[in-house]
Amino acid sequence: MRKSIFFLVILYVFASCSSDDNIINPELDQTWVLNNVTCFCFFGDDFDFTTHKLTFHSSKKTVTIENSGDSSFIAPSGTYPYTDNGEIIEIDGRQYTYEIKANSLNLHFVDEPLIADDEVSYFYTKG
Question: For the chain, which terminal residue's Cβ has fewer other Cβ atoms within 10 angstroms, N or C?
Fold first, then answer.
């Protein structure tokens, strides 16, 4: 009987200590308009990034992605679930470190260190 009680106590402790890596960041809750991308790619001098938008809904843990034209950033247009641990956002299986400063959101793709040309950063402003 003591072993059963001990086992139940240990099980309760582990269950109550589980971490929730999905935080709610109200600063994300708005529409963000892309204004620049840095990567090993070429867009031309007059490329219009502003046709791409992210709208976060932290209460639902979803992000709506809008892309216009031929270019698609982050993921194709649609609504996706996302996770946020306070440092990294994961959208559509891709991870991005993020930083919010005043009216700007910066996303930096968490790249594979052995691949030299997969570094990409997205720079957004409140829209």
Answer: N
Sign of CA dihedral 9, 12, 16, 22: positive
Q: Are strands 120-126 and 104-109 parallel, antiparallel or unpaired?
A: antiparallel
**Integer CA distances (angstroms), 109 to 65, 77, 105, in order:** 16, 18, 13
Task: Provide long-range contacts, Cβ within 8 A and 24+ apart, for 114-119.
Answer: 117/40, 119/39, 119/40
The pTM (predicted TM-score) of the whole model is 0.76
What would the pLDDT profile of 47-76 be if each residue is shown by its tens digit? 889 999 999 998 899 999 999 877 889 999
d(CA 63, CA 45): 29
Q: Would you mind telling me the total number of residues written for the chain in this entry? A: 127
**Domain 22-126, CATH among 2.40.128, 3.90.1690, 2.40.160, 1.10.10:** 2.40.128
